[in-house]
Design goal:
The protein is an all-beta fold. The protein has one domain. 0% of the residues lie in helices and 36% in strands. The termini are far apart. The structure holds zinc ion.
Length: 74
């Protein structure tokens, strides 16, 4: 005998084809605003833009023991 087990509803599953992305919070001093950097496809650095002035910012991954999650852009 088998009982239909619906423990994992498919509608709540994450859509396939969207790889998990790493994010990094960054503080933009230019506008006093928080922004977000996303990891580049090659995984060597993070890139993002200031949400207000669209200024580009970037940070390298794993350089100098960067365990900190908060970065600052001047
Ligand atoms: Zn800005």
């Amino acid at each position: 005998m088998s009982t239909p087990d619906e423990n994992t509803p498919r509608e709540n599953d994450e859509p396939t084809g969207t790889p998990p992305r790493s994010f990094l919070m960054i503080w933009f001093r230019c506008c006093n605003a928080y922004g977000r950097l996303t990891k580049t496809p090659d995984g060597t650095q993070y890139k993002g833009r200031c949400p207000k002035c669209r200024r580009e910012a970037q940070a390298r991954v794993g350089e100098g023991g960067s365990n900190r999650r908060m970065f600052e852009a001047e």
